[in-house]
Amino acid sequence: MNIGNLSLGDRPVMLAPMEDVTDAPFRSLCRRMGAAMVYSEFVSSDALIRMVNKSLAKLEIMPEERPVAIQIYGKDPGAMAEAAQIVVEQAHPDVLDMNFGCPVKKVAGKGAGAGLLRNIPLMLEIARRVVDAVDIPITAKTRLGWDHNNIIITDLAESLQDTGIRALTIHGRTRSQVYNGEADWEPIRQVRSNPRMHIPIIGNGDITGGADVVRRFAETGVDGIMVGRATFGRPWIFAEIERALGRLDTAALARAVPSPHEPLTTDWKMDVLISEIRASVERAGEPGGLIHMRRHIAASPLFKGIPDFRPTRIAMLRAETLDEMLSLMEQTRPLLALGQEGEKA
């Protein structure tokens, strides 16, 4: 699969853009685990053109995480075009992605993100302006439509392609669903099978493991797949997906994270999670880095099934120092064999 001149190989699997999740250290770790490309947290175009420090910090890119895409959002064509220029000048990403799919009220309710599904002419104008503003590949991510009475993705995909974008990611839900219910991949399949579509189509929604990836590639013919919430506390999901696709490089995986344990064993996964915690603290300090890790600790399947684990989990979520967190992790390590990870490999 190619996005412009960028080659991502056959059936690439990518890390989805997620607010307060896909910062540079996490993206770098997911790349080492096997993600073909990683996406940044979404960045407000309005904040970028005002040079807000918090938004500018999201443009940090580590060399080892490339190829990487920076995602921007907004509802003003001029601001989006100017923000695109700032991103390219300051971060030099491999791809610039436009967020036309975020369903949260503070974004969609103000007419940006998935809110643009109610104003398609404006969405297309934004896309045209951004494509014309910079010289790197421009892509977009959107949803099936505003609600089940307005599934418009088949026509919308063609219209977006006509603006000059180089790839389209489709999340298999409407805006009204937010993240509820099941993702519907049938409209994604229809877009991919449309003979008029020539740009890559990337599917997204409810990918929880390697079996899902194999099935979705087979059923829909999509060019690539994007994984989001299933990465919380489980960055090794990309290694499991690579194994399911029959192309896992075990030697490279063994080099990815310092560990005396065999890749994909529970002890190795614990070492991966510890590596993520250390990187978070190194970037944001104490307790900020630990606070950032809370959603990963809370969601990690590594601890599922361990008897009477709730008090330890709470202690992990309340840890204020790295030493305290690492002590809790090592106390838990002997108990991993008692749990059932509940992962679909």
3D architecture notes:
This protein is an alpha/beta fold and 345 residues long. The chain has 16 helices and ten strands. The strands form two sheets. An eight-stranded parallel beta sheet has the order 3-10-9-8-7-6-5-4. It has a two-stranded antiparallel sheet with strand order 1-2. α4 packs parallel to α6 and α9 crosses α10. The protein is globular. The C terminus is likely disordered.
Write the layout of secondary structure elements.
Blueprint: E1 2-3, E2 6-7, E3 13-15, H1 24-33, E4 38-44, H2 45-49, H3 53-57, E5 68-73, H4 77-91, E6 95-100, H5 105-108, H6 120-133, E7 138-143, H7 153-162, E8 167-171, H8 186-193, E9 201-204, H9 210-220, E10 224-227, H10 237-244, H11 250-256, H12 266-284, H13 288-292, H14 294-299, H15 310-318, H16 322-332
Helix pairs in contact: 4-6, 9-10
Task: Name the features.
alpha/beta, TIM Barrel, 2 domains, eight-stranded parallel β-sheet, 16 helices, 13% strand
Write down the overall geometry. Answer: globular
CATH level 1 name of the largest domain:
Alpha Beta
Low-confidence stretches: 341-345
Number of helices: 16
Overall SS class: alpha/beta
Known CATH architecture of the largest domain: Alpha-Beta Barrel
Strand content: 5-15%
The figure for the number of domains is: 2
Order of helices and strands: EEEHEHHEHEHHEHEHEHEHHHHHHH
Q: What is the structure about, briefly put?
A:
By secondary structure, this protein is α/β, with parallel strands linked by helices. The protein is built from 16 helices and 10 strands. The two termini are 24 Å apart.
